[in-house]
């Protein structure tokens, strides 16, 4: 019996790596024995995260092009040409039945070469505004899996499948984890809990907002789980030591996100597509502060897509330091508002996204 062979490429940020790993795991569940090879960008986060998840990965020397004309773009172009050559050899040597791209630098050369070799390809687009690479690749792609409505503006309509974004396991049954969550974070089950997510590296504006309104939070009667990210931990820790708040709990990184979500009455977060998908499966009311520092401002578009459906509250980055905390303290006690937000965001949930995408990949393998 022929075992299916699949190449999965994507990375640069957790938003591209996590879906890639989730799809790989779902593939093995749906079709045990599937041979999977990851392709990443040299020196990027995936080179560490993918082996940690138990999969084999090879790298390409690809990197991002600077928007302005610089000397480094000559190096970038040379590396792109080398990456295309390496991708072609990889496809020849590994002989995949299908190739999956979840975005990030490495997926460009791999999907482009696969298209030229007539190998079926699937693009998994996380955002409501696709990046340049995926727009180019979509012309040759066989299937495009999307997480937002209205994507026929950017992609050929007949190739689009609405699957949602893959999320980590265990977010559908958060209610059962609540007690464990209160114990884990040392919280009072009688008090309202605000969960603040600064991302794995940290979101400056969100952290600034907390620091600016620290006294107000200390005296608010709520409790706060504050993930400030690795970049901001030193600074945040100093403020904690100066004030000794009994109701604010600081972390650089939260390993048990399922437990954090289980106890949260309200969440503050950036508007990355992966986080939004998790929050919708978790059914959590959220105040989104889109990051202005991402390509083509896609976080604002992601957040707007939710705010238009009353599935989230949107506060622009430039207004956050002044408005974010006061607004959260106002709505966290309004159970009707929280219930309405939770109900609307839950309608967008796609808990079986990874499985649905894996089944599409299996169909592509059978096209050969």
What is the CATH topology assignment of the largest domain? Rossmann fold
Number of beta-strand segments:
13
Using the alpha-carbon principal axes, give the shape. globular
Strand residues, percent? 15-25%
Largest sheet: 7 strands, parallel
Helix/strand/pairing class, anyone?
A: alpha/beta
Rg over C-alpha atoms, rounded to the nearest angstrom? 21 Å
CATH structural class of the largest domain? Alpha Beta
The run of helices and strands is EHEHEHEHEHEEHEHHEHEHEHEHEHHH
Q: Unreliable runs, pLDDT <50, ≥5 residues?
A: none
Total tally of structural domains: 2
Distance between the termini: 15 Å
Q: In the CATH hierarchy, what is the superfamily of the largest domain?
A: Glycogen Phosphorylase B
Strands ordered across the widest β-sheet: 3-2-1-4-5-6-7
| Level-2 CATH architecture of the largest domain | 3-Layer(aba) Sandwich
**Overall pLDDT score:** 92
- Count of individual helical segments: 15
**Approximate helicity band:** 40-55%
What does this protein look like?
The structure is a single chain. Helices cover 44% and strands 15% of the residues. The chain has 368 residues and is of the alpha/beta class. The chain folds into 2 domains: 5-167 and 351-365, Rossmann fold (3-Layer(aba) Sandwich); 174-346, Glycogen Phosphorylase B (Rossmann fold), CATH 3.40.50. A 7-stranded parallel sheet has the order 3-2-1-4-5-6-7, with helices on both faces. A 6-stranded parallel sheet has the order 10-9-8-11-12-13, with helices on both faces. α9 links the parallel β9 and β10. α6 (178-184) packs across α10.
């Amino acid at each position: 019996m022929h075992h299916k062979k699949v190449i999965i490429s994507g990375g640069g940020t957790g938003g591209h790596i996590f879906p890639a790993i989730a799809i790989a795991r779902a593939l093995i569940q749906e079709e045990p024995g599937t041979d999977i090879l990851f392709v990443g960008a040299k020196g990027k986060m995936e080179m560490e995260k993918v082996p940690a998840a138990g999969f084999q990965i090879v790298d390409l020397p690809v990197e991002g092009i600077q928007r302005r004309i610089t000397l480094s773009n000559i190096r970038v172009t040379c590396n792109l040409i080398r990456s295309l050559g390496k991708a072609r050899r990889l496809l020849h040597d590994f002989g995949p039945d299908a190739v999956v791209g979840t975005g990030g630098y490495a997926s460009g050369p791999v999907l482009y070469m696969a298209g030229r070799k007539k190998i079926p390809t699937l693009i998994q687009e996380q955002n409501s505004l696709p990046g340049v690479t995926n727009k180019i690749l979509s012309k040759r792609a066989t299937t495009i899996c999307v997480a937002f409505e209205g994507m026929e503006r950017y992609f050929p309509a007949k190739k689009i499948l609405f699957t949602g974004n893959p999320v980590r396991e265990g977010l559908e049954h958060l209610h059962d984890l609540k007690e464990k969550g209160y114990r884990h974070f040392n919280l009072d089950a009688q008090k309202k809990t605000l969960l603040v997510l600064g991302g794995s590296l940290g979101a400056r504006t969100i952290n600034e907002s907390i620091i600016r309104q620290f006294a107000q939070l200390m005296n608010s009667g709520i409790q706060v789980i504050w993930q400030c990210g690795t970049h901001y931990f030193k600074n945040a820790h100093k403020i904690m030591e100066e004030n000794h708040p009994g109701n604010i709990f600081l972390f650089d990184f939260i390993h048990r996100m399922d437990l954090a979500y289980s106890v949260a009455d309200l969440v503050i977060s950036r508007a990355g597509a992966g986080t939004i998908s998790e929050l919708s499966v978790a059914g959590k009311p959220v105040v989104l502060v889109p990051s202005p520092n991402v390509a083509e401002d896609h976080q604002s578009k992601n957040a707007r897509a939710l705010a238009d459906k009353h599935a989230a509250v949107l506060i622009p980055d430039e207004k956050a330091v002044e408005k974010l905390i006061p607004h959260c303290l106002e709505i966290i006690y309004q159970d009707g508002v929280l219930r309405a937000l939770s109900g609307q965001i839950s309608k967008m949930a796609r808990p079986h996204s990874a499985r649905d995408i894996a089944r599409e990949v299996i169909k592509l393998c059978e096209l050969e």
